[in-house]
TrEMBL record:
GO molecular function per UniProt: ATP binding
Record Pfam families: ABC_tran
Designated name of the protein: ATP-binding cassette domain-containing protein
Protein keywords: ATP-binding, Nucleotide-binding, Transport
Record flagged with keyword Transit peptide: no
Protein family membership: Belongs to the ABC transporter superfamily.
Disulfide bond found in the keyword field: no
InterPro entries the UniProt entry points to: AAA+_ATPase, ABC_transporter-like_ATP-bd, ABC_transporter-like_CS, P-loop_NTPase
Highest taxon listed in the record's lineage: Bacteria
Coiled-coil intervals, chain numbering: none
ABC transporter domain ranges (all copies): 2-236
The organism's taxonomic lineage, starting at the top: Bacteria, Bacillati, Actinomycetota, Actinomycetes, Kineosporiales
Length: 371
Protein backbone atom coordinates (compact mmCIF):
# COMPACT_ATOMS: atom_id res chain seq x y z
CA UNK A 1 0.00 0.00 0.00
CA UNK A 2 1.16 3.53 -0.75
CA UNK A 3 -0.38 6.32 1.27
CA UNK A 4 -0.06 10.06 0.68
CA UNK A 5 -0.68 12.00 3.88
CA UNK A 6 -1.09 15.77 3.40
CA UNK A 7 1.70 15.79 0.81
CA UNK A 8 2.69 19.16 -0.62
CA UNK A 9 5.41 20.05 -3.11
CA UNK A 10 6.41 23.65 -3.56
CA UNK A 11 9.27 24.13 -6.04
CA UNK A 12 11.99 26.69 -5.22
CA UNK A 13 10.40 29.23 -7.63
CA UNK A 14 7.21 29.12 -5.57
CA UNK A 15 5.16 26.84 -7.87
CA UNK A 16 2.89 24.64 -5.81
CA UNK A 17 2.76 21.44 -7.89
CA UNK A 18 1.02 19.26 -5.30
CA UNK A 19 -1.14 20.68 -2.54
CA UNK A 20 -2.08 18.70 0.55
CA UNK A 21 -2.63 15.42 -1.29
CA UNK A 22 -4.24 12.57 0.67
CA UNK A 23 -4.79 9.25 -1.03
CA UNK A 24 -4.27 5.53 -0.66
CA UNK A 25 -3.07 3.23 -3.46
CA UNK A 26 -3.93 -0.31 -2.31
CA UNK A 27 -1.47 -3.19 -2.65
CA UNK A 28 -1.71 -5.37 -5.75
CA UNK A 29 -3.83 -2.83 -7.61
CA UNK A 30 -3.35 -0.28 -10.36
CA UNK A 31 -3.97 3.30 -9.28
CA UNK A 32 -3.95 5.77 -12.16
CA UNK A 33 -3.12 9.46 -11.76
CA UNK A 34 -4.83 11.39 -14.52
CA UNK A 35 -5.44 15.08 -15.11
CA UNK A 36 -4.62 18.02 -17.35
CA UNK A 37 -1.07 19.10 -18.11
CA UNK A 38 0.69 20.58 -15.10
CA UNK A 39 -1.65 19.14 -12.45
CA UNK A 40 1.24 17.49 -10.61
CA UNK A 41 1.00 13.88 -11.78
CA UNK A 42 4.71 13.40 -12.43
CA UNK A 43 5.70 15.32 -9.32
CA UNK A 44 3.41 13.11 -7.21
CA UNK A 45 4.82 9.96 -8.79
CA UNK A 46 8.46 10.97 -8.34
CA UNK A 47 7.92 11.83 -4.70
CA UNK A 48 7.13 8.16 -4.07
CA UNK A 49 10.68 7.02 -4.93
CA UNK A 50 12.13 10.32 -3.73
CA UNK A 51 13.46 11.50 -7.05
CA UNK A 52 11.62 14.60 -5.79
CA UNK A 53 11.42 15.33 -2.07
CA UNK A 54 8.07 16.54 -0.69
CA UNK A 55 8.06 19.96 0.95
CA UNK A 56 5.76 18.65 3.66
CA UNK A 57 3.62 15.64 4.46
CA UNK A 58 4.48 11.95 4.44
CA UNK A 59 4.36 9.18 1.87
CA UNK A 60 4.00 5.76 3.45
CA UNK A 61 5.00 2.52 1.80
CA UNK A 62 3.11 -0.05 3.85
CA UNK A 63 4.06 1.02 7.38
CA UNK A 64 7.32 2.67 6.37
CA UNK A 65 7.76 6.44 6.16
CA UNK A 66 9.59 6.73 2.79
CA UNK A 67 11.28 9.93 4.00
CA UNK A 68 12.98 7.97 6.77
CA UNK A 69 14.59 5.29 4.56
CA UNK A 70 17.73 5.58 2.51
CA UNK A 71 16.63 6.67 -0.98
CA UNK A 72 18.76 4.07 -2.78
CA UNK A 73 17.34 1.26 -0.61
CA UNK A 74 13.84 2.58 -1.21
CA UNK A 75 14.31 2.57 -5.00
CA UNK A 76 15.47 -1.03 -5.04
CA UNK A 77 11.92 -2.11 -4.24
CA UNK A 78 10.34 0.24 -6.76
CA UNK A 79 10.38 -0.32 -10.53
CA UNK A 80 10.20 2.80 -12.70
CA UNK A 81 9.04 3.01 -16.32
CA UNK A 82 8.96 6.22 -18.34
CA UNK A 83 7.87 7.47 -21.75
CA UNK A 84 10.34 6.54 -24.54
CA UNK A 85 11.51 3.77 -22.19
CA UNK A 86 14.68 5.69 -21.19
CA UNK A 87 16.95 2.83 -22.28
CA UNK A 88 20.73 3.01 -22.33
CA UNK A 89 21.56 3.41 -26.05
CA UNK A 90 24.96 1.72 -25.92
CA UNK A 91 23.83 -1.37 -24.04
CA UNK A 92 22.17 -4.36 -25.67
CA UNK A 93 18.53 -5.13 -24.89
CA UNK A 94 19.42 -8.01 -22.56
CA UNK A 95 21.94 -5.85 -20.68
CA UNK A 96 19.41 -3.00 -20.44
CA UNK A 97 16.89 -5.35 -18.84
CA UNK A 98 19.51 -6.77 -16.44
CA UNK A 99 20.74 -3.31 -15.34
CA UNK A 100 19.37 -3.44 -11.80
CA UNK A 101 20.28 -7.10 -11.11
CA UNK A 102 23.88 -6.27 -12.25
CA UNK A 103 23.91 -3.27 -9.90
CA UNK A 104 22.73 -5.49 -7.08
CA UNK A 105 25.72 -7.74 -7.77
CA UNK A 106 23.71 -10.64 -9.16
CA UNK A 107 25.58 -13.30 -11.12
CA UNK A 108 25.73 -12.11 -14.76
CA UNK A 109 24.70 -15.40 -16.30
CA UNK A 110 21.73 -15.70 -13.99
CA UNK A 111 20.68 -12.09 -14.59
CA UNK A 112 20.84 -12.60 -18.35
CA UNK A 113 18.79 -15.79 -18.18
CA UNK A 114 16.15 -13.94 -16.18
CA UNK A 115 16.24 -11.04 -18.66
CA UNK A 116 15.52 -13.46 -21.53
CA UNK A 117 12.63 -14.93 -19.56
CA UNK A 118 11.25 -11.42 -18.97
CA UNK A 119 11.51 -10.60 -22.67
CA UNK A 120 9.16 -13.47 -23.40
CA UNK A 121 6.84 -12.41 -20.61
CA UNK A 122 6.37 -8.92 -22.05
CA UNK A 123 5.85 -10.28 -25.55
CA UNK A 124 9.30 -9.63 -27.04
CA UNK A 125 11.14 -12.15 -29.15
CA UNK A 126 14.43 -13.16 -27.54
CA UNK A 127 16.04 -12.80 -30.95
CA UNK A 128 16.22 -9.08 -30.10
CA UNK A 129 18.44 -9.76 -27.07
CA UNK A 130 21.70 -8.71 -28.71
CA UNK A 131 20.27 -5.67 -30.49
CA UNK A 132 20.60 -2.06 -29.35
CA UNK A 133 17.56 0.08 -28.46
CA UNK A 134 17.74 2.14 -31.67
CA UNK A 135 17.25 -1.09 -33.64
CA UNK A 136 13.80 -1.64 -32.06
CA UNK A 137 10.45 0.02 -32.75
CA UNK A 138 8.94 2.42 -30.20
CA UNK A 139 6.49 -0.22 -28.98
CA UNK A 140 9.25 -2.81 -28.61
CA UNK A 141 11.37 -0.33 -26.67
CA UNK A 142 8.47 0.27 -24.28
CA UNK A 143 8.24 -3.46 -23.69
CA UNK A 144 11.96 -3.49 -22.85
CA UNK A 145 11.29 -0.64 -20.41
CA UNK A 146 8.61 -2.69 -18.67
CA UNK A 147 10.84 -5.80 -18.59
CA UNK A 148 13.69 -3.76 -17.12
CA UNK A 149 11.44 -2.39 -14.38
CA UNK A 150 10.32 -5.94 -13.55
CA UNK A 151 13.84 -7.42 -13.51
CA UNK A 152 14.44 -6.94 -9.80
CA UNK A 153 10.89 -8.18 -9.11
CA UNK A 154 9.92 -5.05 -7.17
CA UNK A 155 6.59 -5.11 -5.33
CA UNK A 156 5.88 -1.54 -6.49
CA UNK A 157 5.96 -0.10 -10.01
CA UNK A 158 5.79 3.56 -10.96
CA UNK A 159 4.86 4.15 -14.59
CA UNK A 160 4.94 7.63 -16.11
CA UNK A 161 3.08 7.78 -19.44
CA UNK A 162 4.80 4.56 -20.51
CA UNK A 163 2.65 3.99 -23.60
CA UNK A 164 2.21 7.58 -24.84
CA UNK A 165 4.90 7.63 -27.48
CA UNK A 166 3.47 4.89 -29.71
CA UNK A 167 0.63 4.77 -32.23
CA UNK A 168 -2.92 3.89 -31.07
CA UNK A 169 -2.85 0.27 -32.26
CA UNK A 170 0.46 -0.57 -30.58
CA UNK A 171 -0.68 1.35 -27.55
CA UNK A 172 -3.82 -0.78 -27.21
CA UNK A 173 -1.68 -3.92 -27.55
CA UNK A 174 0.73 -2.74 -24.87
CA UNK A 175 -2.19 -1.92 -22.56
CA UNK A 176 -3.76 -5.36 -23.06
CA UNK A 177 -0.47 -7.14 -22.42
CA UNK A 178 0.19 -4.98 -19.41
CA UNK A 179 -3.20 -5.96 -17.93
CA UNK A 180 -2.51 -9.64 -18.60
CA UNK A 181 0.89 -9.36 -16.94
CA UNK A 182 -0.54 -7.55 -13.93
CA UNK A 183 -3.21 -10.24 -13.52
CA UNK A 184 -0.31 -12.69 -13.06
CA UNK A 185 2.02 -10.49 -11.03
CA UNK A 186 -0.30 -8.44 -8.83
CA UNK A 187 2.11 -5.53 -8.31
CA UNK A 188 1.21 -2.30 -6.57
CA UNK A 189 1.22 0.11 -9.48
CA UNK A 190 0.93 3.86 -9.84
CA UNK A 191 0.36 4.75 -13.47
CA UNK A 192 0.42 8.32 -14.78
CA UNK A 193 -1.41 9.33 -17.94
CA UNK A 194 -3.20 12.38 -19.32
CA UNK A 195 -5.53 10.15 -21.31
CA UNK A 196 -8.83 9.42 -19.57
CA UNK A 197 -9.55 6.43 -21.83
CA UNK A 198 -6.27 4.82 -20.81
CA UNK A 199 -7.02 5.66 -17.17
CA UNK A 200 -10.42 3.96 -17.10
CA UNK A 201 -9.13 0.97 -19.07
CA UNK A 202 -6.18 0.26 -16.81
CA UNK A 203 -7.09 1.59 -13.38
CA UNK A 204 -8.60 -0.39 -10.55
CA UNK A 205 -9.02 3.11 -9.21
CA UNK A 206 -8.42 6.47 -10.84
CA UNK A 207 -7.28 9.69 -9.16
CA UNK A 208 -8.30 12.76 -11.14
CA UNK A 209 -5.96 15.62 -10.21
CA UNK A 210 -6.65 19.32 -10.72
CA UNK A 211 -4.17 21.99 -11.73
CA UNK A 212 -2.66 23.24 -8.48
CA UNK A 213 -2.12 19.65 -7.37
CA UNK A 214 -5.33 18.87 -5.53
CA UNK A 215 -7.41 15.72 -5.77
CA UNK A 216 -10.61 16.05 -7.82
CA UNK A 217 -11.86 12.51 -7.24
CA UNK A 218 -10.48 9.09 -6.38
CA UNK A 219 -12.77 6.28 -7.49
CA UNK A 220 -13.05 3.08 -9.52
CA UNK A 221 -13.59 3.84 -13.24
CA UNK A 222 -17.29 2.95 -13.27
CA UNK A 223 -17.98 5.36 -10.39
CA UNK A 224 -15.97 8.09 -12.07
CA UNK A 225 -17.95 7.70 -15.29
CA UNK A 226 -21.37 7.32 -13.68
CA UNK A 227 -21.02 9.69 -10.79
CA UNK A 228 -18.36 12.41 -11.15
CA UNK A 229 -18.23 14.61 -8.04
CA UNK A 230 -18.13 17.98 -9.77
CA UNK A 231 -18.09 19.85 -13.09
CA UNK A 232 -14.32 19.65 -13.38
CA UNK A 233 -14.26 15.87 -13.09
CA UNK A 234 -17.35 15.51 -15.33
CA UNK A 235 -15.71 17.75 -17.94
CA UNK A 236 -12.43 15.88 -17.78
CA UNK A 237 -14.08 12.49 -18.00
CA UNK A 238 -15.77 13.64 -21.21
CA UNK A 239 -19.13 14.03 -22.92
CA UNK A 240 -19.67 10.42 -23.93
CA UNK A 241 -19.04 9.15 -20.42
CA UNK A 242 -22.55 7.66 -20.22
CA UNK A 243 -21.82 5.47 -23.22
CA UNK A 244 -18.35 4.57 -21.97
CA UNK A 245 -19.75 3.64 -18.56
CA UNK A 246 -21.59 0.81 -20.33
CA UNK A 247 -18.16 -0.75 -20.75
CA UNK A 248 -18.25 -1.49 -17.02
CA UNK A 249 -21.81 -2.78 -16.95
CA UNK A 250 -22.58 -6.38 -17.74
CA UNK A 251 -26.06 -7.54 -18.64
CA UNK A 252 -27.54 -9.99 -16.17
CA UNK A 253 -29.39 -11.49 -19.09
CA UNK A 254 -29.68 -10.54 -22.73
CA UNK A 255 -32.39 -12.23 -24.76
CA UNK A 256 -30.42 -13.63 -27.69
CA UNK A 257 -32.19 -14.98 -30.72
CA UNK A 258 -31.19 -18.22 -32.44
CA UNK A 259 -29.41 -17.65 -35.71
CA UNK A 260 -29.47 -20.07 -38.62
CA UNK A 261 -25.96 -20.55 -39.96
CA UNK A 262 -24.14 -21.89 -42.99
CA UNK A 263 -20.59 -23.11 -43.53
CA UNK A 264 -18.11 -22.42 -46.30
CA UNK A 265 -19.18 -24.31 -49.40
CA UNK A 266 -22.91 -24.08 -48.63
CA UNK A 267 -25.10 -24.02 -51.74
CA UNK A 268 -27.00 -20.89 -52.80
CA UNK A 269 -30.34 -22.58 -52.09
CA UNK A 270 -29.33 -23.37 -48.51
CA UNK A 271 -28.15 -19.79 -48.05
CA UNK A 272 -31.47 -18.42 -49.36
CA UNK A 273 -33.38 -20.72 -47.02
CA UNK A 274 -31.35 -19.68 -43.95
CA UNK A 275 -31.14 -15.93 -44.68
CA UNK A 276 -33.10 -13.43 -42.59
CA UNK A 277 -33.51 -9.95 -44.08
CA UNK A 278 -31.05 -10.93 -46.77
CA UNK A 279 -28.15 -11.95 -44.51
CA UNK A 280 -26.90 -15.23 -43.08
CA UNK A 281 -24.09 -15.92 -40.63
CA UNK A 282 -21.26 -18.26 -41.64
CA UNK A 283 -19.53 -20.34 -38.98
CA UNK A 284 -16.64 -22.81 -39.00
CA UNK A 285 -16.72 -26.44 -37.83
CA UNK A 286 -16.42 -25.34 -34.18
CA UNK A 287 -19.41 -22.98 -34.67
CA UNK A 288 -17.15 -19.94 -34.44
CA UNK A 289 -18.52 -17.06 -36.52
CA UNK A 290 -16.38 -16.30 -39.57
CA UNK A 291 -18.47 -13.59 -41.24
CA UNK A 292 -21.83 -12.48 -42.61
CA UNK A 293 -22.92 -13.45 -46.10
CA UNK A 294 -25.28 -11.39 -48.27
CA UNK A 295 -27.61 -14.04 -49.67
CA UNK A 296 -28.12 -12.24 -53.00
CA UNK A 297 -24.36 -12.32 -53.63
CA UNK A 298 -24.15 -16.12 -53.52
CA UNK A 299 -24.52 -17.49 -57.03
CA UNK A 300 -23.06 -20.97 -56.51
CA UNK A 301 -21.58 -21.65 -53.05
CA UNK A 302 -20.29 -19.64 -50.06
CA UNK A 303 -16.63 -18.77 -50.65
CA UNK A 304 -14.26 -16.81 -48.36
CA UNK A 305 -14.40 -13.71 -50.57
CA UNK A 306 -18.16 -13.43 -49.87
CA UNK A 307 -17.65 -13.08 -46.09
CA UNK A 308 -18.21 -9.66 -44.51
CA UNK A 309 -15.95 -9.66 -41.46
CA UNK A 310 -16.49 -6.05 -40.39
CA UNK A 311 -18.76 -6.38 -37.37
CA UNK A 312 -17.46 -6.77 -33.83
CA UNK A 313 -18.22 -9.96 -31.94
CA UNK A 314 -19.13 -9.65 -28.24
CA UNK A 315 -18.75 -12.19 -25.46
CA UNK A 316 -22.25 -13.11 -24.21
CA UNK A 317 -20.97 -12.49 -20.67
CA UNK A 318 -19.34 -9.19 -21.71
CA UNK A 319 -20.20 -5.54 -21.21
CA UNK A 320 -23.35 -3.89 -22.51
CA UNK A 321 -21.14 -1.56 -24.50
CA UNK A 322 -19.57 -4.49 -26.36
CA UNK A 323 -22.98 -6.03 -27.00
CA UNK A 324 -24.47 -2.77 -28.28
CA UNK A 325 -21.41 -2.20 -30.44
CA UNK A 326 -21.72 -5.70 -31.94
CA UNK A 327 -25.29 -4.95 -33.03
CA UNK A 328 -24.47 -1.46 -34.35
CA UNK A 329 -21.46 -2.65 -36.33
CA UNK A 330 -23.04 -5.76 -37.84
CA UNK A 331 -23.90 -5.54 -41.55
CA UNK A 332 -27.07 -7.53 -40.87
CA UNK A 333 -28.07 -5.37 -37.88
CA UNK A 334 -27.80 -8.47 -35.71
CA UNK A 335 -24.89 -8.45 -33.25
CA UNK A 336 -23.06 -11.73 -32.78
CA UNK A 337 -22.56 -13.06 -29.25
CA UNK A 338 -20.13 -15.87 -28.48
CA UNK A 339 -19.25 -18.01 -25.47
CA UNK A 340 -15.84 -18.25 -23.76
CA UNK A 341 -14.58 -20.58 -26.49
CA UNK A 342 -15.66 -18.19 -29.24
CA UNK A 343 -18.59 -20.37 -30.36
CA UNK A 344 -21.86 -18.76 -31.43
CA UNK A 345 -24.46 -18.22 -28.69
CA UNK A 346 -26.96 -16.18 -30.70
CA UNK A 347 -27.56 -12.68 -32.00
CA UNK A 348 -29.10 -9.46 -30.69
CA UNK A 349 -30.43 -6.42 -32.50
CA UNK A 350 -29.67 -2.88 -31.31
CA UNK A 351 -33.25 -2.72 -30.00
CA UNK A 352 -32.69 -5.76 -27.80
CA UNK A 353 -29.33 -4.39 -26.62
CA UNK A 354 -30.92 -1.06 -25.71
CA UNK A 355 -33.73 -2.86 -23.85
CA UNK A 356 -31.09 -4.73 -21.83
CA UNK A 357 -29.37 -1.42 -21.08
CA UNK A 358 -32.70 0.12 -20.00
CA UNK A 359 -33.31 -2.81 -17.67
CA UNK A 360 -29.89 -2.50 -16.03
CA UNK A 361 -30.23 1.26 -15.60
CA UNK A 362 -33.71 0.90 -14.10
CA UNK A 363 -32.36 -1.68 -11.62
CA UNK A 364 -29.52 0.67 -10.75
CA UNK A 365 -31.91 3.63 -10.27
CA UNK A 366 -34.08 1.52 -8.01
CA UNK A 367 -31.07 0.39 -5.95
CA UNK A 368 -29.95 4.05 -5.75
CA UNK A 369 -33.37 5.22 -4.62
CA UNK A 370 -33.53 2.52 -1.95
CA UNK A 371 -30.11 3.26 -0.43
N1 LIG B 1 11.60 21.73 -11.29
C1 LIG B 1 10.50 22.51 -11.30
N2 LIG B 1 10.55 23.79 -10.92
C2 LIG B 1 9.45 24.57 -10.90
N3 LIG B 1 8.23 24.15 -11.27
C3 LIG B 1 8.12 22.88 -11.68
C4 LIG B 1 9.24 21.99 -11.73
N4 LIG B 1 8.80 20.78 -12.19
C5 LIG B 1 7.50 20.92 -12.42
N5 LIG B 1 7.08 22.16 -12.13
C6 LIG B 1 5.73 22.71 -12.21
O1 LIG B 1 4.90 21.94 -11.33
C7 LIG B 1 3.60 21.75 -11.89
C8 LIG B 1 3.33 20.27 -11.97
O2 LIG B 1 4.23 19.65 -12.87
P1 LIG B 1 4.19 18.10 -13.21
O3 LIG B 1 5.27 17.81 -14.17
O4 LIG B 1 4.17 17.34 -11.94
O5 LIG B 1 2.77 18.00 -13.89
P2 LIG B 1 2.12 16.85 -14.80
O6 LIG B 1 0.71 16.74 -14.36
O7 LIG B 1 2.95 15.64 -14.75
O8 LIG B 1 2.18 17.53 -16.24
P3 LIG B 1 2.25 16.89 -17.74
O9 LIG B 1 1.00 16.12 -17.95
O10 LIG B 1 2.31 18.13 -18.60
O11 LIG B 1 3.50 16.06 -17.78
C9 LIG B 1 3.64 22.45 -13.25
O12 LIG B 1 3.08 23.72 -13.09
C10 LIG B 1 5.11 22.54 -13.58
O13 LIG B 1 5.38 23.64 -14.39
Amino acid sequence: MIRFESVTKRYPDGTVAVDGLDLVAPSGQITVFVGPSGCGKTTSLRMINRMIEPTSGTIWLDDQDTGAVNAATLRRGIGYVIQHAGLFPHRTIVDNIATVPYLLGQDKKQARARALELMERVGLSTTFAKRYPAQLSGGQQQRVGVARALAADPPVMLMDEPFSAVDPVVRAELQDEFLRLQAELGKTIIFVTHDIDEAVKLGDQVAVLKVGGTLGQLAPPSVLLNDPVDDFVAGFVGRDRGYRALGFTTASSVATQDEKTVGLGAEAAAVQAAAVDGWVLAVDDARKPIGWVRAAAVTATVTPDLLHRGGTVAPASGSLRAILDASLSSPSGRGVLVDDDGALVGTVTAGVAVAAIEKELAARRQAGAAS
